[in-house]
Amino acid sequence: MADVRALRIGGFSRAIVWRPWWRVLAVGVALLLSLSSCLALGKVPLGPTALWHALCTPSSDTGLIVWQLRLPRILLGALVGGALALSGWLLQQVMRNPLASPDTLGVTSGASAAAVGYLSLLAADSGSAWLPLAAAAGALVAVGLVYRLAWHRGTTPLRLVLMGIGLSALLTAATTYLLVSSAFSTTLSAYVWLTGSVYGGNWSDVARLAVGVAVALVAMGALMRHALLAGVDDALAVGIGVRVQVMRGALTLLAAVLAGLAVAWGGAIAFVGLIAPHLAKRLVRIPGTAQVVMSIALGAIIVMLADLAGRTLFLPRDLPAGLFVAAIGAPFFLMLLIRQVR
Amino acid sequence: MTRLSANDLTLGYQRQVIMRELSLALPESRISVLIGANGCGKSTLLKALARLLTPWQGQVMLDGDDIHHQPTRRVARTLSLLPQHPVAPEGITVRQLVSLGRHPHQSWLAQWSEEDERQVELALMRTDLTAQAHRSVDTLSGGQRQRAWIAMAVAQDTPLMLLDEPTSFLDLTHQMEVLELLKSLNRESGKTIVMVLHDLNLACRYADHIVALRDGAIVAQGAPQAVVTRERVKDIFQLECRIIEDPFFHTPLCIPFGPGSRSVGGESGLSGQGAPSMQTTESSSQQNMHTGSKHVTAGWEIDG
Amino acid sequence: MNAHGRWGQGRRARRRLLAWSGLLLLAMAVSLMAGSRWLGPEALWHALWSPSPTNVDDLLVRTTRTPRTLLAAVVGASLGVAGGIMQTLTRNPLAAPGLLGVNAGALFVVVMLVTLGGDLPAAVTHLGAFGGAALAVALVWGVAMRRGHSVGPLRLLLAGAALTALFHAFSQALLVVDQQGLDSVLFWLAGSVAGRPLAGSWPMLIVALIALVACAPFLRQWNVLAAGEAVAIGAGVAVRRLQLVSVALIVVLAGASVTLAGNIAFVGLIVPHLARRLATPDHREWLPLAAVIGAVLLLLADVAARTLILPREIPLGVMTALLGAPFFMWLVRRQGVQHG
Q1: B108 touching C, CB under 8 A?
Q2: Where does the ABC transporter domain lie (chain B) (predicted)?
Q3: Do B13 and C340 touch (CB under 8 A)?
Q4: B254-287 per-position pLDDT tens digit
Q5: Domains in chain B: how many in total?
Q6: C153-177 and A184-195 helices cross at what angle (nearest 10)?
């Protein structure tokens, strides 16, 4: 019983896979380290003691920088990254394919089309306050459409993925048209959004996203058993009494909501949803709680560090985090493709 | 006695009918084997019996109720299923895989009870996989993997087990291993086993009850000795053959003839009383008889 | 497919090809006539054979519409054939340059050159587009052909989709960093055959045409390859060499298309399907037909793109995606229903 631990309290029982627990612990430490380095670094670099001082006195100058500027932005990045990573892990599980990601189901392209449409058609009148809502709605509508189109007496992972690719192409074309036909300044702001960033994250953004992610995490906890079962093929799943279509629908919805939330606040940060679960699977081979925790932590770390790079490497410019996510992700992704060749 | 039966079953995919108004009752605590040529509908029938396929007409009855009207979890506590090409989630360990079989017995609250753990360890033991339990399913050999799937069905702890070609892609040793395991499950725990097998001789050896299908209809069913005859094999498989009695197990043994076999056998080989080639078989088997098992009859007759 | 049966069908195939070639001429004529100003056949005739340097219509036809028409025809044919070869090579009916990241790869290199290199001569950008296309094809090739047996459609397409996303992410990032580049790159992004003077496009047009003709000797070998690599080896086809040549042809055809017209999606997917449906599965019949159908489709799509929302234009790449994506989804649905 080295690999599966039993947790039993009265009638309540769970099997928990914590085998490489020290790796999970290491990633936890890495998460804390990257959080503190993100807090310390920036236009005004702070040493450990200065950082401690700033944290203790929120009303001082450095305290204001840390508490009002850096911390909310960092937390927003971490939440966005964690949500995308979890969404990617879920979809890879549901689609039974290591190359699936929130992009695959049309989440990103749906949100992008809605956001760019909003920016070029409505933003002039109503400001950009409703942009997150538009993006999230776009993401969910796109996933709903993909699901509907792939439905024929139930869905299969193959049809879902293919429909997702088809609809993504359509939505990308629409986005391109909006970009080409709208004013140049709109195109620029749309591009920043499409690259993905956590610019100007404040506490109210963090609070709203945190509530959404917390609700999704509770749902995830309840569905954990089914998330593991999703990797089993349909015939076998029916054999052990799983209502396959209900399970697939619920898990896909959860993944779509998570990605929609993340995209609403972080823009179309590509690749976190593909890379973070992959790294997690390399560190924790056995699917289970440890792998999920690892994915979330890695997703958070990736976006936090990418944002840190974006705002410190090219001072005085503040570049979108999505740029560095792509830069970090590319070599990894190529490695992945080459590994698939073997 | 029967727990699983089909009434007037009409099955098909899209617009294509596979079988019409088929009725079948499977004997309890016996090993039933569905045989037939490729495309005769045996896998389709098994899928329908396992509720993977909704019949166009008719019902599959499990314990007196339509299987499609029962909650799928309740069915899963009575009937387990091993499909033809099962897919395991990436990276999953053998123990995790086997414990998936406990799903129908678990609730949201209790997902890993002591009973679950006991049944999983028992299933691992029965399939001789305890030493491999911590390994990833991807790293197992073909025979071990097949045993792991069977262990999952065993952990499900159901009185009925349905298996679709559990021996396909296995070499002879592993085929025997799997079938022996299923037989012991049947003999020791009284499980009802229904499976599709390709190998007619192995089917005859291990089945208590054979159901022969052709073009989506049942041609014959019953004990192997009664079902497997030269005419039937010709009817089902479009194959000339000779049926002899297995010298060790007394089950029918089918010796197929192709067009070329005739010339080897001298005379036609289909009408003759024993072509030369068959006599050599006889003598070699008789040699084996002395060294082999005890229940051997001296002479064996040619069926048909 | 055998040598004997071929001639009986061959006549029908030739007639079919001839009919579509007629249609191609018609589409070219329509493309020359249609636009913000509709010109009748007479005006067209006049512009083509006895142009006067002062007549506005003649100028319009000769300097704007002729290059556009030629480009659309050649790009359409190239994409149709490139998609067809790709589908044969990967043994995957859903393979196409656009879906597998080839367009995005070429686009990425162009964006990189424009944003980082500033004002480069057109030839450098063109070569860059080729390089990007080659890189993407090499990656897809690596994924699709793992030691001899082809991978499932899902993995190939997901790899292509991820590759596309990667290249797009990079292109977007570069454009965010260097905003001056955005304006000059939008053309590539949206795909268009408008406003490209022939003077700069001649070399690529010729390259594409040569590549199209160069496909001819391999048609029979592709027939064998379509039956599977092992079968092809058994039949004495030098499979590795054939695959390399095919990949090279795909790179040239798709690369030239992107260079000439930017990101044009779905033509490479749809056209081979139409061609196979109209002809037999014999490459000698359907691949030439795919070239002609591709040209006709892209010409018509271009005519639609420039006339539907006058006085503005829909970018051609957007137009083909709007037409092609529903077709793709229909294809998936139909196949999905067939295979349960």
Answers
A1: no
A2: 4-240
A3: yes
A4: 998 877 765 444 444 444 444 434 443 434 444 4
A5: 2
A6: 130
